[in-house]
Amino acid sequence: MERITVQVNKPYDIVIGKNLIDNAVKYLSQFIQKRKVLIITEDNVNKHGYLDKLKYSLENHCENIEFLSLPPGEAQKNLKNVELIIRYLADAHFTRDDVLIALGGGVIGDLVGFTASIYLRGIAYIQVPTTFLAAIDSSVGGKTAVDITQGKNLVGAFHHPVCVLCDTSTFQSLPTDIFEDGCSELIKYAMIMNPKLLKELIEREQPLNKESSDLPEIIYECVKMKRDIVLKDEFDQGLRQLLNFGHTLGHALEQRSQYRISHGRGVAMGMAVFTKMAVTQQLIHKDIYTSLIQLLSEYHLLSEKPSYTSDQLINIMLNDKKRRTHQMTTVLPNEFGQCRLHVIDLNTFQQNFEKEWEQYEVHQRY
Ligand SMILES: NC(=O)c1ccc[n+]([C@@H]2O[C@H](COP(=O)([O-])OP(=O)(O)OC[C@H]3O[C@@H](n4cnc5c(N)ncnc54)[C@H](O)[C@@H]3O)[C@@H](O)[C@H]2O)c1
Ligand SMILES: [Zn+2]
Asked: What is the distance between the alpha carbons of residues 141 and 8, in angstroms, rounded to a whole number?
């Protein structure tokens, strides 16, 4: 079991280990004692029994425990569900002393976090991530959001959880492609700020998988990286934007495909296109691009290039949060295992992207 503290205004711990849900009360009792608890989860998670285990562990240690299970999928990260949860809380007389638990992947985490940020101007919530992606990225850092038809994550707030309980045993039930989606964020961390991790990933004999013995260490390493970035730039004014490497295009692909392209696959194509852009601009040697493509292929993250035109994608990207009135922040690699932010005017962004998207071809498909 590992514990990492995030020293923000109200510091919180991230606990990482096996079978933590079975002993959840050991880690969460201080947050639930004499309080009402609402666990929000989704059907795919529920069917593997994690909700029952969590309830069983906590039920005699809080005032009252209830749960809501939503259908799975990105489409659930919407304002309707925010309202549904809020009405549920109000009907059940939840007060500011009570607590929500998000049991699921990034979708449940983002939805519950955002709802917790606005109900009674903010109540406590606990993250219990059940996907690799949520464990290494979305459950840490306090960014919460839901999607609207105009764009992904356009309605959100900064609201840190009071605790993150990361039970690595829950990954056993993850389908391979969902585990691989998380690997896209892992490769992102390595590309933006960790040459050692990037080298290790490239040189691994076996690609990382949910059975890998070093999985907990890798989670620990990623969570520490995210924690350090968040501490330096809690409100996403600068450094934290590095975490958006591949995401501006990734989000546009997700949205344009009506979420048929997953977050991890969208981000993977985003990283590939923007790394190629860095080669075109002579910021990096072509070998870095080749290594990235090889790595993404090993994790089956490079899907076929969709037939969307650059104009269609640019239109969506210009709605992105990284856009300012006349400028756009892009994240480009500038060394092996290092990226930098580039603030460029919108016309230049448009021209650069158009050229890269037209020339982009998928090197290896799965
Ligand atoms: N807030 C942030 O900082 C941040 C960072 C990165 C990503 N995100 C968001 O996270 C979301 C993507 O997260 P995700 O990939 O976890 O998506 P997800 O929550 O949709 O989970 C992916 C799939 O795995 C299933 N699943 C979840 N846990 C399972 C388990 N233990 N066993 C079997 N199946 C399981 C889900 O039902 C779903 O089908 C996106 O909405 C993205 O915008 C947020
Ligand atoms: Zn992401």
From this structure: 9
